[in-house]
Design a protein that fits this description.
The protein is of the alpha/beta class and 402 residues long. 40% of the residues lie in helices and 18% in strands. Helix 1 packs parallel to helix 11, helix 8 packs across helix 9 and helix 11 crosses helix 12.
């Protein structure tokens, strides 16, 4: 049972054990909507983090956390409808969000409710506002992409600007935001990056051969796709038909090499392409992040696979529990509130060591819902048919708002 008024209760274990104050967390999820197929991995991994923290950290601090998930169907109206009841039932000190509908429904409410929300996805330029209550564990998609572009340009060598083609769509504000950010960065850094063309397609394109051929004629060196797997598949098929598979595609976490490889008929089809984002990459490599996941799997009964959805659950949960941990150390285990948790998040960094390498060191501020400086990305590729990490801790450049 969840605790009632104030979202907390006093629990006592064996005689003489330290009293624990229990706080509630609300988890927004999508078990019956467009992302139902990955949601068990997202929620399973974030629950695993909470279970681990309760056992190995919170017990010593005198704090216990409980989480309850709500099925929002990834729908703005459903989020808005469920939130008053969830807040009344749990009086949570923090809420986990999973996507745009959560931010759209709650970003105006949470400052009044005094409950911060942690997202697992990258951010957007239109959400780049001061004094946030909705926070991202990763920076914006353009932040992640420009880090890759600068890395790739250095790998290529030479002094000329990298010629970039962008596959996008005007069907979604999020998609538009991405290419606007990249176009502004290129305009402000013409010696580093040239956007030869942004191609607008339907949301689920099937054949992009004429458009990709146009990019090839313009000398494109890399193609950025941070929309969806359908766009990656259509672009890769076009490059194959044109005999230009030496031109790589760069994608993000949600349309990753694994996801796009599955959609196109096998990971081998993605040979020589890249993904880049500000969290660990779920390869078979023996990384600290993978070791932490294996601990959750073996000791805390996490059944999710080590994949991008799991890492998204890990990243938001780690930001949450480490912030609550820092807050409890600052004010004591019985005085935690949503407002205290938020204040701690924007004043106390979370180190890469504290996140077991799932995230880089995060330093939030009142300036944005994501850290804007000191960030890094990891880069994955397919080499010889194997999914592998090609570079880690690649610096993210400082971007201006768009």
């Amino acid at each position: 049972m969840f605790a009632a008024a104030g979202g907390l209760s006093m629990l006592f274990a064996a005689a003489g054990a330290q009293a624990q104050t229990t706080y509630n967390l609300a988890g927004l999820a999508d078990f019956t909507g467009p992302y139902a197929d990955i949601m068990k991995d997202v929620t399973g991994c974030r629950r695993g983090v909470v279970d681990w923290w309760n056992s190995e950290v919170g017990k010593e601090l005198g704090v216990a956390l409980k989480i309850k998930d709500y099925d929002t169907r990834y729908d703005v109206a459903q989020v808005a409808s469920l939130w008053p009841g969830a807040k009344s039932e749990l009086n949570p000190i923090l809420v986990f969000g999973i996507g745009g509908p959560d931010a759209a429904a709650l970003q105006e409410r949470l400052p009044n409710d005094k409950v911060p929300m942690i997202m697992a996805t990258a951010g957007y330029g239109y959400g780049w506002k001061p004094n946030p209550w909705v926070f991202n564990a990763r920076p914006t998609y353009p932040h992640e992409a420009t880090a890759f572009m600068e890395w790739f340009r250095k790998k290529r060598g030479g002094d000329g600007a990298l010629k970039l083609g962008i596959i996008s769509s005007e069907a979604s504000p999020a998609y538009v935001d991405i290419h606007k950010g990249m176009e502004k960065y290129a305009k402000e850094n013409p010696k580093l990056l040239e956007v030869v063309e942004t191609i607008y397609t339907e949301v689920q394109p099937t054949d992009l051969t004429p458009q990709v051929a146009r990019l090839v004629r313009k000398g494109v060196e890399v193609i950025q796709i941070q929309t969806n797997t359908a766009a990656v598949v259509a672009t890769r098929r076009a490059l194959q038909s044109l005999g230009k598979t030496n031109i790589p595609i760069m994608m993000s976490a949600h349309n990753s090499l694994l996801a796009s490889g599955k959609a196109i008929g096998g990971l081998a089809q993605m040979e020589g392409n890249y993904e880049a984002y500000g969290m660990a990459i779920p390869t078979e490599d023996k990384t600290t992040a993978r070791g932490f996941y294996e601990k959750l799997r073996d000791k805390y009964k996490v059944t999710a696979g080590y994949n991008v959805p799991c890492l998204m659950g890990l990243n938001q949960a780690i930001v949450a529990v480490r912030t609550i941990e820092n807050a409890a150390k600052a004010v004591g285990p019985t005085k935690l509130t949503g407002e205290v948790v938020r204040k701690t998040l924007v004043t106390t960094p979370i180190t890469a060591e504290q996140s077991f390498g799932v995230l880089p060191t995060l330093t939030y501020s009142e300036d944005a819902p994501f850290p804007t400086r000191g960030l890094t990305v990891n880069i994955g590729t397919v080499q010889g048919g194997k999914y592998t990490i090609v570079d880690q801790n690649v610096a993210v450049p400082v971007l201006n708002k768009w």
